[in-house]
Amino acid sequence: MTSTPVESQDLEQQPLQPAQQNHYGATLPQLQRKVHKKRFRKELKLLGSILVVFSLLVVVVLWASRFIPSEDLIQKYYEDVTKFEIHSIKYEGWQSDEDSEEGEHKELSATKVGTFNILKLRAKVGVHFDHDRAINIANASVNVQRQQKAIRFFSQTVVRTLCFELNNMTAYNDNETSTQGLGSVSIPQRVCVELQSNKTTELDLPILIRPDSQNVASVIIKIWKHRFKDLNLWSSFDVSLSKWGLALGKIQISHLDWDEIFNWKQVESYVDNIQAAFKEPITVDDMEIIDHQEAVDFHVAISYTTPEDIQKFLGFEKDAMIPSTSWKVRMPGCNEDDPILLQNAVFKTPTILVNDLLSSEATSLNISGRIWGPLPDKLLYQVCDSDEENVVTPINLFLNKVFNATESVQFEICGHSSESSNQSIIPKQILDKLLPSVSEAISANLTLNSDELVEQVSVNGLKLKWVQKGWGDKKLAITGEVISIVNLPFYNSAHSGAKATVSIQKIKGLTKLFHNNVHFITVPMDVWLSADSEILPTRDPSHNQLRVSFDIADQDVVVVDSLELSRCLNEILVKGQTGVHVEGNLDLMIDTRLGSLVLLGLEGDGNTIIRK
């Protein structure tokens, strides 16, 4: 085949031209339409994929939203699962607003005591979360249970530990008519807690409390009186949350019910232990009664031991004190529900070192009191009971217990006022608001027996004789002067000014005569007989005795043993005298600056001589 001239040309000399592609008969417009369709399909697929992914995300979000709890549910959840246990509380003093801002603690001073209004405490607290408790709460919907499980999972697995700062907390109590503000609480440090189930975080927390003294006092009284049902305590607070040092935001809770987080049974247990200690009879180690012008002073020494669990629970600084306080006294009336207030009396407790009170050894307390006489008429003269011989009054009932070593006396103390103290654990303005609401029943044992009051009974000039009573009727009568030596327990005559302020005006009772240890005569004295008394001279003003005498002239007697009476009379005829033993059961009417007091059933004995 012969090549053409073009073909024969050197290929290197041919111009560079793109090789033509074969489109198999397609025109240019057709080619463009085909390209556009391919692009549209790709975009449509991409858009479809996006729509599918978005739809899946919506479905996932809608599905997951069932597990995302609301803020209210989260709050309710942690109210249910959070539990506090207070191990101990230590008092660290009071400070002023200025001290709080400066971050330093200053001691109370008498001149600035009114400005100290922030209480510093340090509490050792255990915090744990019982997540199962929330899950097991009945009547929860399926959706709520899912959300609770999500909170539990997130708390225990993801977060595990959470830190917070309590910016401010205000406490309230809802009473029957209004809401009382109790004060504000702050914790000046960051606190971190373990959120895992039943894992306790032990915390040592400084706590600053700015109390409303009047409202706090009313809450304390309700707790003391076990009126927990009258308490509706709650708080509002805001908390800053953080994790790994990063701020997670703030949570503001407008209403947190204390019943959900506090173990009130623990609080009630401490109150029960303290009250049980008060109900135990107080042993009176010593008592002194002293005349003071128109009043009578009392000095009472008692011992008190604080319950052991209270010693462990509370802690105080070395110099912390309970200031001297004044108290009124209610004496028991005829009925327990009708006590009698001693308007004209006041008793004071001394300033007490708190650490002495909390020691394991008994603490000695010296209580002083003053009563301006006389005692209330209701106490002296109200008739509780009576018979043909005696009228029983409230003071009789009280004194009978005083002089019975097997019984304790009961009375009620009522808070009145307090004195200022530089180291007081409670500022005066708060204590004075608290005290008037405090009343407590006290039981005390004076360890005194009525057998110790009448030391001796004898009869001077005792004679027995037959007395004519009517026609041919003779009765045995007795004559003589009965002498009794009566001890005055606790009475100190050092300040009486040589003036007798205690005397026995009248006496009655029953006297028994024994011969050869045989009871043969009883001398009844059913009516009050006038008596003379005098305080015997003594070198010890704390040991005083009254000599009481009264005449029995032709007093009828009851012959108990005629045979022994005959032996006694025969011995008198033969020997001119005989010895007898005398036992007396006497009722004494005593005149004091506090009024007339009646002591019933005082027993005494002694020996005497019967002569012709």
Automatic annotation (TrEMBL):
Keyword Transmembrane helix recorded: yes
The family database entries (Pfam families) matched by this protein are listed as: Tag1_C (PF22786), Tag1_M (PF22787), Tag1_N (PF20775)
Which residues span the membrane?
46-65
Q: What InterPro entries does this protein map onto?
A: Tag1, Tag1_C, Tag1_M, Tag1_N
Q: Where is this region: Disordered?
A: 1-23
Residues forming the Tag1 N-terminal domain are: 69-264
Instruction: Tell me the ranges covered by the Tag1 middle barrel-like domain, including all copies.
Output: 280-440
Q: Name one GO cellular component term.
A: fungal-type vacuole membrane
Domain Tag1 C-terminal: residue ranges:
500-610
Q: Give the record's keywords alphabetically.
A: Membrane, Transmembrane, Transmembrane helix
**Mind telling me what this protein is named?**
LANO_0G13894g1_1
Please tell me the species this chain comes from. Answer: Lachancea nothofagi CBS 11611
